[in-house]
Amino acid sequence: MSDRSPGTQVAIVSLGCAKNLVDSEVMAGLLQEAGFGLTVEADEADVVVVNTCGFIEPAQREAITTILELARAKQAGRLRGLVVAGCLPRRFSAQEVARELPEADAVIGTAELPLIADVVRGVLRGERFVLAEQAPSFLYHDRMPRMRSTPGHLAYVKVSEGCDHPCTFCTIPRIRGPYRSRPMESIVEEVERLADEGVQEVVLIGQDTTMYGADLYGRLMLPELLRRLGRTGVAWVRLLYAYPAHVTPELVAAMAEAPNVCHYLDMPLQHASDRILRAMRRWGNRRAYETLLARVREAMPDVALRTTFIVGFPGERESDLQALLDFMEAVEFDHVGVFAYAREEGTPSAAMEEHVPARERRRRRATVMAHQQRLLDRVAARRMQAPVELLLERPGRQPGEWVARSAYQAPEVDGVTWVRGEHGTAGQRIRGRITGRQGPYDFLAVPDPSDLGGDRAPWYNRPTSASVR
Q1: Which of 136, 171, 194, 392 is the most buried (most CB within 10 A)?
Q2: What is the largest CA-CA distance in the chain?
Q3: HAMAP family in the record, alphabetically (predicted)?
């Protein structure tokens, strides 16, 4: 049988974060360009590519479980090839992954993703590949083919790859390599093309988006990039993964001034105890964080603040945990994610003393999450009865009900807003008014009466085309 017959189908299973998802979309584009068919159903595929996450142990377990399930399908059905790609072969050696998972016909790392069509062709010919030894260097650009798997109104755009920060708990520099920025023109051209395709929201991602341009231009260039993107046709530009050291006054001003930049800042702080922050080798301290966040709120009074914390770090005491809880009380974040520390082989923190028992780590995570839920009443009160722009995503459970998001809610990681009394189309933007909450994280809204019956041009636009899957 030919290695690329007209009916040859490839499925890509994307695990982990949005950065991985962009890699999967680029691989899908390369495969389509090479003449392969793409399917979202693994049981309809001749070859399945698993784009793995290897960041922490639970992600590694998920990847291995997925691979073994597909291996069983390969033994029982039409599946002819299984490719393991992405972060897992970088977190460990490619040879080790290939040895531990002999069910895989090919193992490739992040640097080899552009070779995916050749790899699939070889697998269909019965060849086996182990290609994950190059230093991470791949960085996609606007001219590469890409098949988006997100809804038609939403797209993720990487501004950079890799990381230079020395955080003692993190494996990302080992997996993704040193920090490297995309040229600004490449990003702007990609966003302009996405706007032409009907995309309403572009989410900028990178391991540290705020360091953008330092390697390429010799200075932090995210403020200039946001100003450039402010002149594109995209309605919302959202910023994720900000590093506190690089949230400069210039960046805050650019966010406040650019007409389409969401007043939303995702800034993983990881902790608020000065002692633990030093052990993590993170920039700053509690006082610096409070000063920075006050500056952000002064420039954008309606800003939504999101952060993540790690609890149970080696040497963390009850006093450190209390410092974190007090910090949360003082700041009142809109969205908080909490992770129990994971001891990762090869990281400096793995060799530290005073490791916190796993059960206690889980208890501390539950304590912090419960504390955030108690704060949500105060946090939500800032949004009540306020006018808000909403992006309709999908119909709700009842006629005239929609699942939407506001600029204060990032896709996938935050809650949603339920809109009642609206008949629209996915991808439309409307003006609404927040009327209440549903559960701890979701809001309720109705269309703003001042926006009904008149010219909706400032708030409604043409529905976007269906997403490519």
Answers
A1: 392
A2: 66
A3: MTTase_RimO
Distance of CA 388 to the CA centre of its chain: 24
Length of the chain: 469
Tell me, yes or no, if the pTM score tops 0.85. Answer: yes
Per-residue pLDDT tens for 37-58? 999 888 889 999 999 988 788 8
pLDDT in tens, 322-342: 999 999 999 999 999 999 999
What would the two tokens of residue 41 be? 């159903």
Residue 468 has pLDDT above 60, yes or no: no
User: 440-451 burial, b if ≥16 CB within 10 A, otherwise e?
Assistant: eeebebebbeeb
Spell out the domains of the chain, with CATH numbers in brackets.
9-131 (3.40.50.12160), 154-381 (3.80.30.20), 387-451 (2.40.50.140)
Residues contributing to the annotated binding site for [4Fe-4S] cluster: 17, 53, 87, 163, 167, 170
Quote the CA–CA distance of 333 and 342 in Å, as a whole number: 24
For tokens 């391991």, the residue is 207
In this predicted structure, the answer to whether residue 296 has a pLDDT above a threshold of 80 is yes
